[in-house]
Amino acid sequence: MKYPVFALKEKDNLIYVFFKEKDLKTTNTDLLRKNIFKNVTLIDASGEVYKIKNAFKTKDAGFFGFSLLKKGKQVLIDFEFEGKSANINISQFKQDIKDKIDRNRNFWQSAWDISELKEKINKSTSFREIADLIK
Question: pTM (2 decimals)?
Fold first, then answer.
């Protein structure tokens, strides 16, 4: 996967962006146990689309998984994906992102003028530029 990576969940209108593998693949045991990663779609900087089937622990993170700053035991994870990856073109991705922004306007209005944000997304020429806008 090429970073940044977008993480999207079907019934969640938030857009998550990860610029480093460590950030994407570090979680706590409670979230892993709840299997919150199932059916999450990852889209990397080249437009490759991966759908997570399952997440699994690879090892403890940090000092036996404990951190003073984070809640719960931290673990490193990896993913099992459903089928082969697909590809999304940048124009379709832009439309999908703008649709999520429209469905969650209250969240985005706290930091952006919605029409300005959508205009900047339209002018973006790469997935990286979009990631930098919405981080």
Answer: 0.89
